[in-house]
Amino acid sequence: MKIAVPIKFVPDLVEELTIDPSGTALDTTWLRLIINELDDHAVEQAILLKERSGGEVTVLSAEADGVDDFLFTAAAKGADRLIKLTGDFSAADNHALGRAFADVIKELQPDLILTGVQAHNDLDGSVGPLLAEYLGLPYVGYVAGIALDGNKVVARKEYAGGLVAEVEVKLPAVLGIQAAEQPPRYVAYSKIRQVMGTAKIEERPVSNLESSGGVVVGRLFQPEVAERATMLEGSPEDVADKLVGLFKELGTL
Amino acid sequence: MPIRETFWNIPHWAEIAQYIAALVTAIIFIAGITRRVLRWRKGRPEKRSGHFWKRIGALITQVFGQQRTLDEKFPGIMHFSIFWGMLVLAAGTALATIDWDVTHLFFGFQILKGGVYIAFELMLDVLGLLVVLGLGMAIYRRYIARPARLQNFPVKKLAGDDTYVLVMLAFITLSGYLTEGLRLAVTQPDWAPWSPVGNAIAALFLSLGDPTNQTLHLIIWGMHIATAFGVLISLPFTKLFHIFSVPLNIYFRSLEPAGALRAANMDGGMGVKEWTQFTWKQLLDFESCTRCGRCQDVCPAYASAQVLSPRNMMVKLDDHLWEKKPRALHGEVVSVDELWACTTCRACVQVCPAFIDHVTTFVDLRRHLVDQGKMDQMLQDALSNLGRYGNSFGQSDRMRAKWTMGLQPPVKDARREQVEYLWFVGDYASYNATLTDVTRKTAEVFHKLGLNFGILYESERNSGNDVRRVGEEGLFEMLVDKNSQVLSKCKFQAIVTTDPHSYNTLKNEYPANGNGRYPVLHYSELLDQLIAAGKLKFSKKLGYKVTYHDPCYLGRYNGVYDAPRRVIEATGCELVEMPRHRERGFCCGAGGGRIWMEEKEVKERPSESRIREAVALEGVQTFIVACPKDLTMFRDAVKTTGNEQRLEVKDLIDLVAEAL
């Protein structure tokens, strides 16, 4: 079983986000990047599958600050291959990223592709379904739990309202991970350091990033205070009366 | 002339038999000791030589003087009596034997004659009573008083070992007295009254008459000898082995600063997975435990939830060394919960009469858990945050100096300009919202005192003290590297910190620069120095009745007890001590990374127990701390114990600021 895990780095929300002068993107001066939390879960899920039934796990990421450390950490957890796409990804959206991943993954020919089901900076859809489209593979998202069964998997897909479906998918397939079966494990620093001496990060240059089909950002802005908010005060009865009055005024009642 | 006829009434064959028995005993004894020593040698190497005279000195005070043993009155006197009584009796018996079968037999010369012999008889007779007294106290304590710490054996069969030792010692002493009494009853020498106990026993047997007493004497002498050799044979195999292991353990104890933890074993994974990865000295630790339980009595983890008993840990680890089918060290021999329960407060180490270092062993065992990534989610998050942001709060490093906003004059940036004091602020004082006021107040006091000080702003990282004690050695090293890099570029004369944890590792574990380690001061020491130099003068006498809590990493780890007390008194406060103070100070429960872990079910939190202790002091309304973590721990505990009206928790700096 060959498992590929494409991951991406996203802005760390611990830092305050600011908009750059163009008004369409984040100011990168103070930006610090962090692994997308759900991608971290995808890596954990891949390692769990490997521990359960053997196989080879390849973790792929586009070049960014901190990616090397993350890849080595993944290797310390048990990932076998580390691939870093190099190039200028500063303006790459998920369409571009998906295509870049697809090119490398075609060559890897994995049986299973796991990736985080979403990220907080997905403006043009999440990576998983895009990747599935470019690879011509089936996709199941919001997966929390995977059972391997020969050339197919049974994925536990979570729905709103606490519903769970078991979805059978033929391999190869792309699964969007909502949560690994256990929280991502801790790796001691000494182990990461050890791996740094032995593991190798394969670099794959990506020259043309193709973002067609994505979205164009017209304006990026901080939440703005709207002026229409009116606070209703008084006892619950008073507030209810006022509300009814307002609705009538607005013609909704 | 009074003379010692050692083998009176003993047929020649019996005397010969005794020497043959002695030879057999010696062989088994040596074999038994060798068996133990070979086991220790399976441990990893560790250097514990040097400071010969210092080590010998400790043997004199601790073994012969029984100094630590005497810290507790009843058990102390009990052990002291048995120790000195048995020592004198054993030495006396040896001397009598040498006197008769060596000097007398071969050289026709006796030491034990005349006045010397009389004095010898009197001394042995009276000191033998010490053993009787000690054994009586021991039997009362173990079987009638039954303190908790002598109970709940994790290894049940050891109850037999305890009984065996008491029975054998009692038998040796009583049969010795009987032998003497019977001899005196038959021979009735003029000097018999100089053996008051023997003589009194003789009086009881007088009526039995001669052939009976002579026969009885031979029989009891035989039993006395047999028991004595029995004790010697069993010494390497029973609790009696502590007679051998404890002096060795005291001799080989670490003379390094208490606050400097040994680096982790990295051979075959980090820490200790199997007992052979302990050092020989740790194995000697386990074999030195006499199960006295003093550590258990002072352990905050034991007091709060009974999860961890340092005593039981030692007992289980020692038992594990000899298991025929070795169980897994983690999970089977010791539980993960008990390992995480330790606050590394060092109270156990401080009271151990055998000078066992429990904490180092716990940390080594934790290191393996970290190596395997086995820890609770809160701790995992804290460590991840420490690795990523340099603080356990998971906040941006750029927010570290947010507390300085608006302070006038602004706090200097020690990275940019030379300062006299580099203030290492620490995570809690920097990030914890409820501590900002106190941190700002400290800066204001420093300003008022005209100190030239600065901070590292966002370049400061968690010092790593508790990261190391959690067992994450690699992360600790990384934090040390990052802090050291910044420190090496700054110009300052001394580091000052309000945090005893940072203080400990900066002082004892950070690498030395060209001039040795940076001088590191706790703010209580700095304030104390300023008071002594006349640079800090108070305008007010506060007159509060206060008590003071010793932080573990300031007190037990670094011996700073007096500086904070002098500062408190200089502010005109009356200091009332809690029963547990200075070396016996009771941990707040936050140390060793406990503050980052999930709280399991507890009977009473250590911090709550501490607050109740303070509340019991008459008239004390203020509880003074000298550690940022203590401030949060005890403010919480005052609320949870419902003592908000009764007791106020204040930082030392609050008193100083008020009295200025």
Termini gap of chain B: 81 Å
Percent helix of chain A:
25-40%
Total helical segments of chain A: 6
Number of domains of chain B: 4
Total discrete domains of chain A: 1
What fraction of the residues of chain A are assigned to beta strands by DSSP? 25-35%
The CATH topology of chain A comes to Rossmann fold
Features:
heterodimer; A: 253 residues; alpha/beta; Rossmann fold; 9-stranded mixed sheet; two-stranded antiparallel ribbon; 6 helices; 30% helix; B: 660 residues; mainly alpha; Fumarate Reductase Iron-sulfur Protein, Chain B, domain 2; 4 domains; 5-stranded parallel sheet; 26 helices; elongated
Describe the structure.
Chain A has one domain: Rossmann fold, CATH 3.40.50. Chain A is an alpha/beta fold and 253 residues long. In chain A, the strands form two sheets. In chain A, strands 9-8-7-10-6-1-4-5-11 form a nine-stranded mixed sheet, sandwiched between helices. In chain A, a hairpin with a 5-residue loop joins strand 8 and strand 9 (164-170). Chain A is globular. Chain A is built from six helices and eleven strands. Chain A is 30% helix and 26% strand. The longest helix of chain A is centred in the first third of the chain and has 17 residues, at 37-53. Chain A starts with a strand and ends with a helix. The mean pLDDT of chain A is 93. Chain A has helices at residues 37-53, 67-77, 94-108, 127-135, 189-198, 236-249, and strands spanning 2-7, 9-11, 33-35, 56-62, 81-86, 112-116, 139-149, 152-158, 164-170, 173-177, 201-205. In chain A, helix 2 crosses helix 5. Chain B is mainly α and 660 residues long. Chain B folds into four domains: 12-29 and 73-237; 276-371, Fumarate Reductase Iron-sulfur Protein, Chain B, domain 2 (Orthogonal Bundle), CATH 1.10.1060.10; 390-531, 3-Layer(aba) Sandwich (Rossmann fold); 536-659, Rossmann fold (3-Layer(aba) Sandwich), CATH 3.40.50. Helix content of chain B is 54%, strand content 4%. In chain B, the strands form two sheets. Chain B has a five-stranded parallel sheet. Chain B has a four-stranded parallel sheet with strand order 7-6-8-9, with helices on both faces. In chain B, helix 23 (562-570) links the parallel strand 6 and strand 7. In chain B, helix 5 (158-187) packs antiparallel against helix 7 and helix 22 (523-532) crosses helix 23 (562-570). The model of chain B has no long low-confidence stretch (mean pLDDT 94). The A-B interface holds A 14-15, 32, 34, 183, 185-193 and B 264, 266, 270, 370-371, 373, 375, 377, 380, 383-384, 387-389, 394-396, 398, 472-475, 477-478.
